[in-house]
Amino acid sequence: MNSLRLHLNENTAGCSPAVAETLRALGRSTAAFYPDYDEARDAAAGYLGVPPDHVQLTNGLDEGILTVTAAAFRDRTGGIPDVVSVVPAFDVFEGCATALGGRMVSVPLGDDLTTRPDDLRAALTPNTRLVFVTNPHNPSGTTIPLDAFRSLARDVAPALLFLDETYTEFAGVTLVEPAVFSEIPNLVVGRSFSKALGLAGLRTGALVANPATLEPMRQIVPVFSLNAWAAAALPVALADRAYRDWYIAQAAESRTLLVETCARLGLHTWPSAANFQLVRVGSRVSAIVAALAERGILVRDRSREHGCEGCIRITAGALADTRRLVEALEEVLCAVR
Ligand SMILES: *Cc1c(COP(=O)(O)O)cnc(C)c1O
């Protein structure tokens, strides 16, 4: 039996059917020829509402994060570069920063698991080259007003502010608009097409910034970073707004169901604007994760991270999947208590 994957914030309903059809129609020469993804880049720029010269497509946003880190580290005048990030955070931030020889400066979130820009400002050092923030935040799902990121970006200059907007479609807010990037040249927004558009297996992401800021990053991204299947799929996925909007609505209903269920079961949750919900299940967290796995449902144990003691993260995807999780969670909680 295939497990229900609610542990990596993927799209539990799959990609748009139009994407599947496009992929099926690709022929032998698509596999044989190097990919051309200018059309995919233009489609992404149209979707994001910026000119194509503001966009660099990457092999998933993971590659975008690696690229931004490498670009930020090109200036070695101060010795070992510092990277400032909130914790908990997406673990690729720290992975890239340390793999490329940087030093990680970790700033805990507030008790309500929101990003506190003043704490990030206070953590800046003369060697800070890059600051990582995420909105909505992963793993908490919390958001803060966009203006806070705008002013934070100004204050961290000349360091880069990397704003990870992987979950922005679910929240319905984005900092991406052309004027922002001319006003704030050290701002780089990361976007992923893995989650809302359901393309995680194809690996498509984007860096969005002022063209001059992107230039050193373009030199770092490998020339054929997107494969031909991803390049063919992306414009189709971006064009199918009806499918995307249906899924966003499903995720919102799933979140509501999870919050209501947790309230009834006496479990703490945080207000999430993303396609997942952080839930404090308490000290029996590993038993609960294991019992759910036995029932064929995978959720993510985040209990070892700062501020997330006793917590699991559950993907809020298609409503039918969430209903199945809720039923299993109720059974499991009775059993382990
Ligand atoms: C999933 C995720 C990504 C990576 O997305 P890909 O485009 O699949 O590489 C980046 N940032 C955050 C916060 C994520 O949760």
Task: Give me some keywords for this one.
alpha/beta; globular; binds pyridoxal-5'-phosphate; 12 strands; Aspartate Aminotransferase, domain 1; Aspartate Aminotransferase, domain 2; seven-stranded mixed beta sheet; five-stranded mixed beta sheet; 337 residues
Q: How many strands, what sense, and barrel or not for the largest sheet?
A: 7 strands, mixed
Ions, cofactors and other ligands present here are:
pyridoxal-5'-phosphate
According to CATH, the fold-level topology of the largest domain is Aspartate Aminotransferase, domain 2
What is the domain total for the residues?
2
Q: Strand pairing plus helix content: what structural class?
A: alpha/beta
Number of beta strands: 12
Q: What is the CA-CA span between the terminal residues?
A: 27 Å
CATH superfamily of the largest domain: Type I PLP-dependent aspartate aminotransferase-like (Major domain)
CATH class membership of the largest domain: Alpha Beta
Low-pLDDT runs of 5+ residues are none
Tally of alpha and pi helices:
14
Q: What CATH architecture of the largest domain do you see?
A: 3-Layer(aba) Sandwich
Sheet with the most strands: spatial strand order: 2-8-7-6-5-3-4
Architecture overview:
It is built from 14 helices and twelve strands. The chain is of the alpha/beta class. Strands 2-8-7-6-5-3-4 form a seven-stranded mixed sheet, with helices on both faces. The protein has a five-stranded mixed sheet with strand order 1-11-12-10-9. Helix 5 links the parallel strand 3 and strand 4. Helix 1 runs antiparallel to helix 11 and helix 12 packs parallel to helix 14. The relative contact order is 0.18. The model has no long low-confidence stretch (mean pLDDT 96). It binds pyridoxal-5'-phosphate. The site of pyridoxal-5'-phosphate (PLP) has 13 residues, from helix 4.
